[in-house]
Amino acid sequence: MKMKKDSVYIYSKKQLDYRFNDHHPFNHVRLESTYDLLQSLQAITEQDVIAPRLASDDEIALVHQEDYIEAVKNASNGKIAQGYGLGTEDTPIFPNMHHAAALIVGGTLQAVDEVMEGRFKHALHLGGGLHHGFKAKASGFCIYNDSSIAIEYIRRKYDARVLYVDTDAHHGDGVQWTFYDDPDVCTLSLHETGRYLFPGTGQVYEKGNGQGYGFSINIPLDAFTEDESFLQLYETAFREVAEFFKPDVIITQNGADAHFLDPLTHLCSSMKTYKKIPKIAHEIAHHCCNGKWIAVGGGGYDIWNVVPRAWSLIWLEMTKQTSSLSDTLPEAWIKKWQPYTSTPLIQTWEDEINSIPHIPRKAIISEKNATTLEKALFHIRNEMRQSSSND
User: What gap in Å lies between CA 265 and CA 299, rounded to an integer?
Assistant: First the structure.
């Protein structure tokens, strides 16, 4: 495959140190298997990769309170302070967790600098996307919120307007609430409705506060939403929000847990969705902000059969290599990673049609989602109509 030098891949095996325990669903071995899949395809070289740097305490403090950072450091040594969300079932403590989490943050900041300083148009940091972290509380497997820190970093260092688009099955609550009253940050989140899934937020009426009103857009999807409805809502919302907000840079959070095989969610997307998500982001970035696109990872808990395929497709799209793909995954990759799981590895890029669950309520779900989209975009469409009539 022919390399394209307008994209950079932020990665180091040291990022696998962000690991709670052997039984926890969050397992960053998916970073290694994804990178190995790209290498097996000859779709990436060492020259395409930059190692993440370590974020400083001052950078982490752009979003997180100093007492919380100290609590994380103490938890790294086995001392748990109450009230910070550390030592829970979702976010248990582990040795050197501050260092591991700071490396994740540093990776996203590295991606930001590579794009905002003009060395690359696009940057991919799959280790990031930990969107549930709050100013003074860990939540949902997330210690520090690298996306929120990166956005605040962009605002202060580069004075740029940021569009953050989150397609994780779980609502990007930590990012939304951090910028809920900021008119220079727009958050768009498509996620499974909180009626069934953590964190329970992301309702369509959560639209921002004060000067930030209208710049928080949520599209809660009904459980068992399939490709057709997901992609129709995603593309429509992304294009209209980008046209309305006119960002200087786009950050996408690419959780891979809306797939029908994911064990923690109830959405029903297939690899068709994960091929289209980065394609649309790529097109919009070039259309509205000179290609400035920073992509991070996120959720994804079928770490063998879903995440490596879905995340590889982001890099392949960034570097314009999707047309060179064969139908099947490299045999050497299958052979290398099959011993790590008792589940037979899927050997094709696409999911077999007969493996995708049939949803009898598909029409009803799609109609309900379309109504949700109308509610989510009403204020944008109304303002755009008024602007058009004034012209």
Answer: 10
- Angle of helix 97-116 relative to helix 146-158, nearest 10 degrees, comes to 40
Q: How far is CA 12 from the centre of its chain?
A: 18
Q: How confident is the model at residue 384 (pLDDT cuts 50, 70, 90)?
A: confident
Average pLDDT for residues 348-353, to the nearest whole number?
A: 96
Reference 102, options 178, 170, 17, 8; nearest CA is 17
> Which entry of 122, 132, 171, 259 is annotated as an active-site residue?
132
Q: What is the distance in angstroms between the CA of the first residue and the CA of the last residue of the chain?
A: 48
- Predicted local confidence at residue 2, as pLDDT: 44
User: For 242-296, what is each residue's pLDDT tens digit?
Assistant: 999 999 999 999 999 999 999 999 999 999 999 999 999 999 999 999 999 999 9
Report the alpha-carbon distance of residue 345 to residue 339 in Å, rounded: 10
Walk me through the domains of the chain, giving residue ranges and CATH numbers.
7-390 (3.40.800.20)
Name the amino acid, one letter, at 390.
N
Axis-axis angle for helices 362-390, 227-245 (nearest 10): 20
pLDDT in tens, 30-67: 999 999 999 999 999 999 999 999 999 999 999 999 99
The pLDDT value given to residue 388: 74
Tell me how far apart the alpha carbons of residues 218 and 43 are, in angstroms, rounded to a whole number: 35
pLDDT digits (tens, 9 = 90+) for 137-165: 999 999 999 999 999 999 999 999 999 99
Q: How far apart are CA 214 and CA 191, in angstroms?
A: 18
Q: How far apart are CA 299 and CA 140, in angstroms?
A: 10
Cα(188)–Cα(185) distance, rounded to whole angstroms? Answer: 10
Catalytic annotation present for 132: yes
Distances (CA, A) of 320 to 168, 189, 282, 351: 23, 26, 10, 22
Amino acid occupying residue 54:
L
Q: What is the dihedral of CA 242, 133, 50, 339, to 10 degrees?
A: -110
